[in-house]
Amino acid sequence: MIQNLPLPYLLAVFALAGAAVIYSSIRATRLADIIADRTSMGEAMAGGIILGGATSLAGVVVSVNAALDGDASFAFSNAVGGIAAQTLFLAIADLIYRRANLEHAAAEPANLIQAVMLMVLLSLPLCAIAGPDVSYLGVHPVSVALFLAYLYGVRLSAQVSEHPMWRPVMTSETRTDEPEDEEEANRSVTGPALRFAALVAVMGLGGWVISQVGGAFIERFGLRSSLVGSLITAVVTSLPEFVTTIVAVRRGALQLAVGGIIGGNTFDTLFLVASDLSFREGSLYHAVGTTDLYWLGTGLLMTGILLAGLIARQREGPARIGFESVAMLGVYAIAATIEVIG
């Protein structure tokens, strides 16, 4: 068993699993861009659905394993902590993209609607926690509502992407989604899709290994489940989103970068649905603590700040990053500090 390994081997396994997930995510980013062009899906939708869902797989495996083991706090904090961490990655990407504010350059209606849907989806668990402790067959009704709302959000995002009712003002710094040349775009999507699926499988396996190591940290060193979930496994399993975001920015696929983070965060709310299904001791939402609720609020706050930045489209701010990136960096730093000292 992985959990019984000596500490040096345990850390080595953890590092190898993280490296495998990161490497797979790098390869998957390029394939997602190709799939977006060859299917005429567009970078924002490909980032939100294909890339966002794939790079979130390791995280959902961690949460489900934690829920199956009866650790609601670990499962919940891994999910909502990952959302906060991944939103932070956009602020870091904004620092790296030196031409202008990233949220200004990556103007795309689909990203706006996905950010709105993410705030709606994050509000549902908050309602469940504050509401009565009810469950049917071990599943809270909010989990069903969360899943259905996610499906509707995906459909609505696709409609906005295909038939937008408004368009952003084009400036010299706005980067549009440019497809491949026509000859390349007409090539088959089967090969890239199969390679993408293989990389997704590697990410899933890496997530299982990371969940086992995270559980060992909690049991062996007496660490709080919320600390391990929100700042260790959540960050490690979110590194694919960080890598894919940086790679996409370097490739000039800015809509893919922003859409991948927002879409990945939207997909991450389904961690809670899967965890509630896997948690057999009642409602997951009423088995978590106030620290987990704090990270839910942090994710909601950071998403609201990001949405404001996407709408305001500040061309330049301090150090060429927008006000939203400065605010998100500050909010996450405060949240992490409170978690560590708490």
From TrEMBL:
The chain crosses the membrane at residues 6-26, 46-68, 74-97, 109-131, 137-158, 196-218, 230-249, 256-274, 294-312, 321-341. InterPro entries: NaCa_Exmemb (IPR004837), NCX_ion-bd_dom_sf (IPR044880). It comes from the Bacteria. It is found in: Membrane. GO terms for cellular component: membrane. Residues 10-152, 198-337 form the Sodium/calcium exchanger membrane region domain. Keywords: Membrane, Transmembrane, Transmembrane helix. One of its GO terms (biological process) is transmembrane transport. Residues 169-188 are annotated as: Disordered. The keyword Repressor does not apply. It is a multi-pass membrane protein. Pfam families: Na_Ca_ex. This is Cation:H+ antiporter.
